[in-house]
Amino acid sequence: MTSSNAETHNSGAKGLVFNIQRYSIHDGPGIRTTVFLKGCPLKCKWCSNPESINPSPELMVRESQCDGCGKCVEPCTHHAIELHDDHVHIDRSKCDLCLKCAEACPRGAIELSGKYMSVEEALEECSKDEIFYQNSGGGVTLSGGEPLYQPEFTLNLLQACKEKALNTAIDTSGFANWKIIEKMLPYIDLVLYDIKHLDPEMHASATGVSNEVILDNLQKIVKSGKTRVWIRIPVIPNFNDSETYIEKLAKTLVGMPAEKISLLGYHEWGKSKYFSLGKEYPLNGCAPLAEERLESLKDIMQSRGLQVTIGY
Asked: What CATH number has the domain spanning 58-113?
């Protein structure tokens, strides 16, 4: 497999992190700290963390916090900021991320998404809640973006966590060279593995990449027997929510030693973030799935003997 099939981004000793969420209960068992790494080779149209896609730091403008005062305009020596109808507009091709605009904003409406952190810095943050991990069966989850996109930092952080006897999980699309995953497996207690679509062309139409590598890596992970696996399926209207497709998916997953299968219904929680990044929302007008619809899809999968939950 060549780098064009599954690109990675190495930032050396430091990793680019856009959020560390403590007391997380949706990214694996127990109470966890989730480290969100920036950069992803997929461009999923429904991505709820669009700030995670670009493998570089970038500005976000929170319009709900902006009162149109214009104090951010003058400090920008590159003339990258303009005020139109009391709304901030940033020409990102001119911006050099000097952050003078953010410093001048009295309401904190402009912020930088993405901070380079050492393994030691990230581990120190994760270690703050060790007592909660012990009492709840939780631990540390690496998510994104795509943690496999920063393989060196991810591997080093996983190793550091295991040296402190912390439970580890990784939330991944599986789109990476198998050698990267294989090297990490001894330090991963749980893999949260996304399956978007079984059809390569359908997968590529919605994510920008085909799925051959993803499905192949899933088989290798479960056959290795080195880690627990939870499969997560984002259910997207008019993409993978038909009864026919769900039946086919269920047949594919029967016999696979995955502890848990979760149906994650499409939502619009990340919509405002696209506007904060100056981007159009790809699925504008797409309505979230009704709970009844998800229940019917769950019934189809359970009829095949699979253990299925709705949500995390």
From this structure: 3.30.70.20
